[in-house]
Design goal:
- The structure holds 3 protein chains of 3 kinds.
- Chain A has 18 helices and 22 strands.
- Chain A is an alpha/beta fold.
- A 6-stranded mixed sheet of chain A has the order 6-7-8-3-9-10, with helices on both faces.
- Chain B is mainly alpha-helical.
- Chain B contains 14 helices and no strands.
- The longest helix of chain B has 28 residues.
- The radius of gyration of chain B is 21 Å and the shape is globular.
- Chain C is an all-alpha fold.
- Chain C is 72% helix and 0% strand.
- The chains are: A alpha/beta, B mainly alpha, C mainly alpha.
Chain lengths: 506, 341, 311
């Protein structure tokens, strides 16, 4: 297949700018790029979910128009998305039978036969009567791959397939991909992780801000050592800028002894599809940056919410500077200086339709100087907004602009400014640099460092190991809802943390 | 197009289109639309006593509108205003005659208003608790409580609250001289002023106070509400309580100002009819007064014009439905245009 | 106790129960299908009224009850088409449109009745006899239970048919996916619009049939606003039935029994106030909501329009 000269625009942004990509059978083509580089949009066109504004798509030289997912399926293109598309309360069998023509009777035996066929192709085993929502994320993904290949295998498109997997899951996934490639499929693999590109990819295309900035053909890739390939790819992605990892932002002096936050035996009840916490305990010192590492989905979000007061603890205590805040709700803890910078910026961090100014004071509704005797003081809110916009360099047309219109980086600056105002003592940062461009990532990390130096303790939850190694004094690792180890940051911290993330034990 | 005029167009377009469509339907039925609309205006706007009647009809409608503004802005669907209104009216009608005799007049009136608010809020308690603590869909629960209220009111009027000396099942009548005083020599009673003030106060509270902002945040984004430290269950209870109380006050005003009695089979059903008006006004207090006035003019004038054109006045329902439909469409088109632009 | 077992009482009671249950059952089954597919249809009452009026008018003019039922179905579907246009094809707010449709159809049917029948107030002749041989001669129960219009039996059969449909066919699978996770269905290549439209149109058909039954069999004539909240009751029953047609039947029967108890008790000479008895079905529902409300089991995408590839 060939996608040629593809251009796609959305209001305010050019997602794809004249991109050309070729797919060959028996080859894994890796599409590499940062968040926002346009990868998902591009493969959306293969999947029939998006249509290009300009450019053509052709199969074996013949132009085609992929107008809908049905059309894509007809052409033999199967897509596995980043976010699960299985219906959680249906069984595997039912999920696989979805999409059959409605007038045909349900063909369970035909389905089972095909399931057996594809399972052999993938080299996996599946229980057709298991309820989809109860399977592990890795297994769910295998079902998704099967669905993608159900109607005929020609092209398999994978969008960030490993983001939710454990290292073991990634390995199994890799095996499946290799088998499929050897069976002759053309595979497109979208990712932002360099190591996966080298491990699984035969051909590499690099996207940056909507443009194709680099391409490595299979012969060249095979000929290079991993080190050379890495260097070349980084060169294409970042120009000659130094890697962000080069600048160590660790604290010059060790944090003093006073404890800012103590957690003892914290437990929360597990819910449908949500990890419960078991017996979490640690102490955070004033001015310290304490990292929480772990593969996504091991309870980090629940830890953040439990500490912030959004999730009720079933056992254990939380003490803020020696004061027991376990029974306090969100508002009470906020008032005492415990802040939570959520990763869900538009879902819970802000009210998108409200102005930047209002969002900046959203956690202080009813408090002076913005509210006097219950009445809103618009002038005070405006003045505050203007000073924050200047101080944190928030790029916005005005303080009254609805915050949803701002770019991710600027929303993050606003949220950061909000959490840091009004006397914070401890801030929980949940994936603070997720989805940001390079410049904003560095800025955010610097601000976290500055805050810590000023005495604001930070709990940094992140899935990026290099970020944790760069900023944290100590790093705890979460695995299945438990804190399985706390590692002092140092030269060998990386591998030790990796080990804990994978196996749950050192 | 400037924002203000665009907003005004968005609000007025559905009405104008609906009136046009209504005219078409009238013509299709063989009635003269111009004559119809002229009669509507003559009966109400161009007629001193007609205007007063319009004002009087607006009183309970405005209180229901206030009730709906509070809950819609908080993202909750209180579809039980009819039941809350009716039950409050029944209680006020039952205890009114006795209280105005036993207590100084204005004390009695205040007591009756509190009674009405209390009864209505109590009636909304179960749906409120179910929604606040268990997330139970309040559309079902408030609708069910409304139907329950209809039967309960009928029962109460026929038994405990009934006038034993009257063969028609109804409550004791509040004598005309004990009803709410009129302004000047007109038909307009002070309840009308109260209702207008109520709507304005609700509007100010919702748009200018911290409390109103908290409710609006819950309505816009409940997860954000939790994240910023708002106590969502408590706010939910407050919203239901206030919304129901306002509906109950509507019932009280209707009895104290106009009817003075409740018959067993009475239910005016204002609740659902006010919903489109509140949406048209985009929950804005001042705009709602305008739309309610429009509706009152259409109701009173329409009833007379319909009778003279030999049509049931339920024609009005069709008009309201068309307004709702066109409004939703206009909103959608405007949102699409905004996205593209 | 004697009075309760007489033929007179049982006849009145059973006849009343079936008359009250049938419309709720049909409309409830219809609403359940819409909700399964993710559409909250508050216009049900409007669809029933149009079905009632159309059914009545056609039966009156043509003399055929069967044609009347077909007209009812068509009428309900016509209104459902409006709902489809507004809420499935276009993503307008389902609650606002639903209320609009109900109000509008209440007004329109009242208007139509006034224009056509306010002078004459015609009634339909009695429906033809449908006595099932032998069974209808069972003492006490037979006279009422086995002389019902075939629509009644078809409706009960429909419960089984729909249960089978949801459990064992692709249609059922597609409907569930449309309501639970429409993205999954869309990406599997099945049209969400088509699936949801089909569901809503079926709802219209069933609601129209329910209305036609109320007018032609239940009352013998059309009175404006005659559904009197039955549509909303059916919506509630559908919401509480957790996707199982059998539960809609159970709920409809309970409400039907409670409703007909009023008249039946009067026939039996017991003097319980009708208003209190009328409260029974609603009280039952509130009790169910209070005890089971938390785990409502409503489809995840209910009430939300589907937008493919939305950013």
């Amino acid at each position: 297949m060939r996608l040629s000269g593809i251009t796609k625009r959305f209001p305010g942004v050019v997602a794809n700018d004249d991109v050309t990509v070729e797919l060959f059978p028996g080859e894994v083509h890796a599409l590499l790029g940062e968040n926002g580089a346009g990868k998902s949009t591009l493969i959306g066109m293969l999947a029939g979910v998006q249509r290009p504004d300009a450019g053509t798509i052709s199969v074996r030289g013949e132009a085609v128009a992929i107008t809908s997912p049905r059309e894509a399926i007809r052409l033999g293109i199967g897509t596995v998305y980043q976010h699960a598309t299985l219906v959680p309360n249906m069984t595997v069998a039912e999920n696989l039978m979805l999409g059959q023509s409605w007038w045909r009777p349900m063909r369970r035996d035909a389905m089972l036969a095909r399931l057996a066929e594809i399972s052999v192709l993938l080299g996996v085993q599946t229980d057709p009567d298991a309820v989809a929502g109860t399977l592990s994320l890795g297994q769910q993904q295998q079902i998704e791959i099967m669905k993608a290949l159900w109607r005929g295998e020609r092209v398999l498109v994978l969008d960030e397939p490993t983001s939710m997997l454990t290292p073991q899951g990634v390995r199994e996934f890799g095996e499946v991909v290799m088998r499929l490639r050897d069976a002759g499929l053309a595979i497109v693999f979208v990712t932002h992780k360099l190591n996966e590109v080298l491990e699984f990819g035969d051909r590499v295309s690099i996207l940056k801000l909507g443009r194709l900035v680099g391409h490595i053909a299979p012969e060249r890739l095979r000929a290079m050592t991993p080190g050379d390939a890495t260097a070349q790819i980084i060169d294409m992605m970042f120009g000659r800028e130094p890697k962000p990892n080069d600048i160590g932002l660790r604290r010059a002096t060790p944090p003093d002894g006073a404890v800012a936050l103590t957690v003892e035996g914290l437990c929360t009840a597990p819910e449908a599809r949500q990890q419960g916490l078991s017996d979490i305990g640690f102490a955070l010192r004033v001015g310290e940056v304490f990292g929480i590492a772990g593969v996504d989905g091991n309870g980090q979000k629940q830890l953040a919410e439990a500490l912030a007061g959004q999730l009720r603890a079933s056992a254990g205590r939380v003490l803020l500077g020696g004061q027991d805040v376990t029974v306090l709700g969100v508002a009470g803890r906020q008032r005492l200086g415990l802040r939570y910078l959520t990763d869900d910026r538009l879902g819970e961090g802000t009210v998108g339709a409200y102005s930047v100014g209002l969002n900046l004071v959203l956690k202080q509704v009813g408090e002076a100087p913005f509210w006097r005797r219950g009445l809103t003081d618009e002038a005070a809110i405006q003045a505050h907004a203007e000073s924050m916009i200047t101080r944190y360099d928030i790029r916005t047309p005005s303080a009254e602009t609805p915050i949803a219109r701002l770019s991710g980086g600027n929303i993050q600056k606003a949220l950061f400014g909000r959490e840091m105002s009004n006397g914070p003592r401890v801030v929980i940062y949940n994936k603070p640099t997720y989805g940001l461009d390079l410049a904003n990532i560095r800025l955010s990390r610097q601000r976290i460092r500055e805050a810590a130096d000023a005495g604001v303790a930070g709990l940094l939850i992140s899935t990026e190991l290099d970020e944790l190694l760069e900023l944290c004094d100590r790093i705890g690792v979460m695995y299945r809802g438990r804190l399985v180890g706390i590692v002092e940051n140092g030269p060998d911290a990386g591998p030790r943390i990796g080990q804990l993330m994978v196996a749950g034990s050192a | 197009m400037r924002a203000r005029s665009r907003d005004a167009l968005r609000a007025l377009a559905p009405i104008i289109l609906a009136l046009l469509l209504g005219g078409v339907i009238l013509a299709a039925l063989g009635r003269d639309p111009i004559l119809f609309y002229t009669r509507v205006l003559n009966r109400t706007v161009f007629n001193a006593s007609g205007l007063q009647e319009v004002a009087v009809l607006m009183a309970p409608l405005l209180l229901i509108a206030a009730s709906l503004i509070v809950c819609f802005r908080a993202g909750l669907w209180n579809l039980g205003t009819d039941g809350q209104f009716l039950l409050a009216a029944v209680f006020v009608s039952a205890y009114g005659p006795a209280l105005v005799v036993a207590l100084p007049y204005w004390v009695a009136i205040c007591a009756l208003m509190l009674l009405a608010a209390g009864v209505a809020a109590a009636w909304a308690a179960l749906p409120a608790l179910l929604r606040a603590w268990h997330g139970v869909n309040e559309i079902i629960s408030t609708l069910m409580m409304s139907f329950l209220a209809f039967s309960l009111s009928a029962f109460l009027v026929k038994t405990y609250f009934g006038d034993p000396e009257n063969t028609v099942p109804q409550t004791l009548v509040l004598p005309v001289e004990d009803r709410l005083p009129r302004i000047a020599e007109s038909l307009v009673h002070v309840g009308v002023v109260f209702a207008v003030l109520a709507v304005l106060v609700v509007h100010l509270v919702m748009t200018r106070t911290a409390f109103g902002l908290r409710l609006r945040i819950v309505g816009h984004n409940p997860r954000a509400a939790e994240h910023v430290g708002l106590h969502v269950p408590r706010l939910t209870l407050a919203v239901f309580g206030i919304s129901a109380a306002l509906a109950g006050l509507g019932g009280a005003i209707e009895i104290l100002g106009v009817r003075g009695v409740v018959r067993a089979d009475w239910h005016p059903g204002f609740g659902l009819l006010v919903v489109p008006l509140v949406f048209l006004a985009r929950f804005h207090g001042v705009a709602v007064i305008g739309f309610v006035a429009f509706f009152a003019v259409l109701t009173i004038g329409g009833e007379s014009a319909a009778r003279r054109a030999d049509l049931p006045n339920h024609f009005l329902l069709v008009m309201m439905a068309m307004i709702l439909g066109i409004l939703a469409l206009v909103d959608h088109l405007a949102a699409r245009a905004k996205e593209r632009g | 106790m004697d009075t309760l077992l007489t033929t007179a009482f049982m006849t009145a009671f059973i006849a009343g129960t079936i008359a009250a249950t049938l419309p709720l059952l049909l409309a409830g089954l219809g609403e359940q299908m819409s909700e399964k597919a993710g559409v909250l249809n508050l216009g049900l009452e409007g669809m029933m009224l149009v079905g009632a009026f159309a059914g009545f008018a056609v039966a009156l003019e043509s003399g055929s009850f069967t044609l009347g039922f077909l007209a009812g179905i068509a009428g309900g579907m016509a209104v459902a088409a409006l709902m489809v246009l507004a809420c499935v094809v276009l993503p307008l707010n389902q609650i606002v449109i639903g209320i609009g449709i109900t109000l509008g159809m209440q007004g329109a049917t009242s208007l139509a009745h006034h224009v056509m029948y306010s002078e004459s107030y015609p009634r339909l002749p009695r429906q033809p006899e449908f006595a099932v041989p032998l069974l209808s001669e069972i003492p006490v129960l037979g006279a009422s239970l086995f002389t019902q219009n075939p629509v009644v039996w078809l409706s009960f059969a429909l419960v089984a048919v729909m249960a089978w449909l949801y459990r064992a066919t692709n249609i059922g699978l597609n409907l569930s996916a449309a309501g639970e996770k429409p993205a999954a269905l869309d990406l599997a290549g099945v049209g969400i619009t088509l699936t949801r439209s089909a569901a809503v149109l079926t709802t219209g058909a069933l609601a129209g049939l329910a209305g036609a039954y109320m007018a032609n069999i239940g009352a013998g004539l059309f009175v404006p606003f005659m559904t009197n909240g039955a549509g909303f009751m059916a919506i509630v029953l559908a919401m509480l039935a957790r996707g199982r047609p059998g539960w809609v039947l159970g709920g409809a029967l309970l409400v039907g029994v409670a409703t007909s108890l009023t008249t039946a008790l009067q026939v039996a000479g017991l003097n319980i106030p009708t208003d209190l008895v009328q409260m029974l079905p609603f009280i039952m529902i509130m009790i169910v909501l209070t005890i089971f409300g938390r785990r409502a089991g409503l489809p995840a995408a209910l009430g939300h329009p589907y937008l493919r590839g939305a950013r």
